[in-house]
Design goal:
With 259 residues, this protein is α/β, with parallel strands linked by helices. It contains 5 helices and 16 strands.
């Protein structure tokens, strides 16, 4: 038996005696009864269960299921061999990616931004270590702490991030170690890229995929992502300092800054 999902952007077929697939918000389960007349179709979230009897689609109570115009358009045209369903999803639009940037120059004299939310002790410790390392290597670190994102304080946060993005030559924004903090870390990294400057977002491994998805949603699918170990927050200070040392070269490498 073949289950075909039809759509402008879909060229897939699901073959076999049992097939499970999703159509929009509907999950459909197809079964083939080798000794029966046709197909059984379970519609989860809708609840109709039935079989094809040759004259139409019959539910488990024996009643024919018809579309609003008196036909089987609600279920599509079916045969014992093939069920065709039109995928009710619009064609995915083409995405034009925003450019990314690198410095490609020595670190001495560069103004490098570090962004944190004041929430994660692990990231604040790592950021503090990196601030020391940058000063040691001749760079000028500029730290920004963001606040709330709604109301009057939200307006102040956005203004603070814009001012910070204007001041720096490049930046790292973190920390993405929960859903919302990852989203805002990416958003503030994008604010720097929008100034045509190199930017990276620092996230823990558990939220790497979310960071890439958020960057793509904001039109920056190639935003550079620095992935730190997960979990990070509960680690002792000495271990966090070791992580700061280990990942500092990678941080500079992503910006293509040479020491």
């Amino acid at each position: 038996m073949t289950a075909e999902i039809l759509g402008d952007d879909v060229g897939q077929e699901i073959r076999g005696h049992d097939a499970l697939f999703a159509v929009g918000a509907l999950e459909l389960q197809l079964h083939v009864d080798a000794g029966g007349p046709g197909i059984a179709l379970d519609q989860h979230q809708v609840g109709a269960v039935g079989t094809q009897d040759g004259s139409g689609f019959v539910d488990s109570s024996g009643d024919r299921l018809v579309g609003e115009h008196g036909d089987q358009s609600r279920f599509g045209r079916m045969s014992p061999d093939t069920l065709q369903i039109r995928l009710p999803v619009a064609k995915t639009p083409d995405v034009t990616a925003a450019p990314t940037f690198t410095l490609d120059r020595p670190i001495d004299g560069i103004t490098i931004g570090i962004r944190h939310e004041g929430s994660w002790r692990s990231w604040m410790l790592i950021a503090g270590e990196w601030e020391r390392f940058l000063e040691r290597d001749g760079a000028k670190p500029v730290i920004v702490q963001t606040g709330e994102r709604v109301g009057h304080e939200g307006a102040e946060t956005r203004a603070r991030v814009r001012e910070w993005a204007d001041l720096v030559d490049c930046a790292v924004s973190g920390l993405g170690t929960c859903g919302s903090c990852t989203s805002w870390s990416v958003s503030d990294a994008v604010a720097v890229e929008d100034k045509l400057k190199p930017s990276i977002v620092a996230v823990t491994a558990e939220f790497e995929t979310h960071a890439h998805n958020m960057a793509t949603y904001l039109g920056h699918p190639d935003l550079k992502v620095l992935v730190l170990p997960y979990p990070l927050e509960a680690r002792p200070a000495d271990e966090l300092r070791e992580i700061a040392v280990e990942y500092y070269p990678r941080f500079l490498e992503l910006l293509q800054v040479g020491t």
